[in-house]
Hints:
Chain A is mainly α.
Amino acid sequence: MRTPHAPPEEAPQPSPGEDRLVRFFQYAIACTPVVFIGGIIGWVTHLIRTSLRLHDVPSGAIGISLVSIPVFITLMCVLLYVLWGILNDRRVR
Amino acid sequence: MAERLEVDELLLDPIRKTGRGFWIAFAALLGLIAWGAAAYLTQLRVGLGGTGLQQPVSWGFYVTNFVFFIGISHAGTLISAILRLSKAEWRRPVTRMAEVITCMVLLVGGGQILVDLGRPDRLLNVIQYGRYQSPLLWDATSITAYLTASTVYLYLPMIPDIAILRDNLHGKWNFLYRVLALGWTGSERQHQILNRAITIMMVMVIPIAVSVHTVVSFVFSMTLQPMWHSTIFGPYFVVGAIFSGIAALIIAMLIFRRAYRLHAYLKPIHFQYLGQLLLVMSLLWFYFTFAEYLTAYYGGEPEEMKVFWSKFTGRFRFQFWAMFTCNFVVPIVCLTRLKKNTIPRVLIASITIVIGMWLERYIIVVPSLSAPRLPFQEGSYAPTWVEWGELAGSFGLFSMFYLLFTKFFPVISIWEMKEGRHQAIGEVMERVKSYLPDTAEPATAHAGGTEVAP
């Protein structure tokens, strides 16, 4: 069994306002994967639409996207799992 | 935690104190970056005409640097992931440095394409009108995936260490550590989540890393240029990338070992193991190079033979044979029988390999473009100070990123070292027992009829 570590006693206690700000940034970090990877997936989708619109070998664009989009989605899921999982388990602290 | 931290206190020293050496390195790197910035500003002002690039050699130093830096990035995540996955216990002081190399070098490598564009505003065209049928865009996608995965793979194992920094350093950066620690308390549940995520990432990152350099090779092999249109370019590039990556990792480890006095953590045994890995990669690199040139020679196609002989005996012979010496002859001499003088020999081999691998990328890019298949006149390429400046600036930028990272975060994973001390020895014993066949006999062994005590 791992023992949770306690901060050293001499550590200055943060003010509630500072704590709220820290939490805000932490949840912002936890939301970053959705924004960043969502943006990439949106861009890939835009490229597929462009190739369809221009009849520019859409099969190629779709084929490559079929590989790349699941990779990005998996990355996003892992990130969300770990970031939200750690953030929502602060009971000991 | 407090008790153990005393043991690893040394790892926090570079963050707590800023020595004279740091400022000297900082100033030197700033000089290199300034040279690079001056070169880039000149290029922005006068265009690509200020460089040695011209028709038919439209890819010179920039694409060489791009392939080289992306190759170096394989140091990290791939090596770190493989070592973690194979539960190699000696990995503990090595993985963080390797992962940092990957992230930093990918930023610099990706930036080379922006520099090569000449006009950076044209990047918007790629975003708006990019064609997914082009290998160049496959490259952009796979490098983005690799950079994202590598950053995640670097950050996740850093969370417990950032929590240590949050609890032990109360200076002006404490706010940053508090944010990045994500409220880490070290609870069983948090460890479970983190370990699960790291396991998924290390499985994912290996195919992504292999795909990245394969896709980089597609940029060449999907064309019909002489000596580029080759099916083994994918694995050839991946082997070269891992080869140069290990060499760069060894150099970084030796620099920080000396600068931050990490002799107790980075022992000769680590360099011996990495040296052996380097020797294997050198032999593999030789095999792939041999196969690549053998298939071209066997085909005997006139356009290919023109490029072939320009490398062996023609105007690129100096670079070609220097590459061969750096990547094969020196490593073989230095890395066989590594028991004595391990560190100097591994260092010499690593430095020559980094130089040799840069030459290899140059030897791939420039000769083929100098003698193209299309009815162009044969061309030549002579880099100007702008390209040399970009090269120096790129190395400076990469080293600066790395240096700054070590100023904010421990360069060796503290919690993994602690875990190694507390749990790994018992775990390894259990693991070794599980590998051995189960016997009904009591734990005694017979050797030559003599009973040996367990």
